[in-house]
Automatic annotation (TrEMBL):
Organism per entry: Aciduliprofundum boonei (strain DSM 19572 / T469)
Keyword S-adenosyl-L-methionine: yes
GO cellular component terms given for this protein: cytosol
Name of the protein in its database record: RNA methyltransferase, TrmH family, group 1
Entry keyword Transferase: yes
Entry keywords, A to Z: Methyltransferase, S-adenosyl-L-methionine, Transferase
Biological processes per GO annotation: tRNA nucleoside ribose methylation
Amino acid sequence: MQIHIVFVEPQFTGNIGFLARTMANFGFKNLILVNPPELDEDAYRFSKHARYIIENAEILNNFEELRRSLDYLVATSGVSTKSPKKFKRIALTPREFAQKVWNFSGNIGIVFGRENYGLYNEEIEKCDSLITIPTSEEYPIMNITHAAAIILYEIFMEKREEEGMPLAEEFELNLLNERFSELLGLINFPDHKRKNTEVMFRRIIGRAMLTKWEYHSMMGVMKRIIYAIQAKDDY
């Protein structure tokens, strides 16, 4: 498994340096910058002995390129998602995520957003899971490098030597969600409840971080249920 740290549209090059330094503290080397400013001396100066991380960073033009380049994306946000009117998934804490991540293989990206705004809602929805750090409600938003340090520390402490199982990919999760929507239609689930139920299912799948084996098992069960309902209707 390869974990990539992603910084989307950073505003200040010094923060790129601080992030690289934080990554080096916990043994992470793969940095991806999405539409960054031109890297200047501040980026390298603030990275201290982690200059090599910036020199080897991958530069992408936009979020769509990021989505295509990695198998599994994990968004980060300081916004609570307990309300069903918020994002399409309930967030994991850094510790909950760390306890799961080393069980899998593939290329995983932990995505940090802009210093002034974070990730846009549509970017979070394109990710497969979501991490939020529990903080005071009076001031929940953290500096990116402080947030990165907490998340990377938890992952570092849970590190395992065993090779993990591959995670279900984005297109597979989308197929699973589509199959669930099809099932709701077949059982005449009430229209006024359908959207929230689909959102709830996406949240469950996002928190579960399904392996490919789990995905195929769930798809098999859903297909059998759908075929059984269709056969009964035909009869």
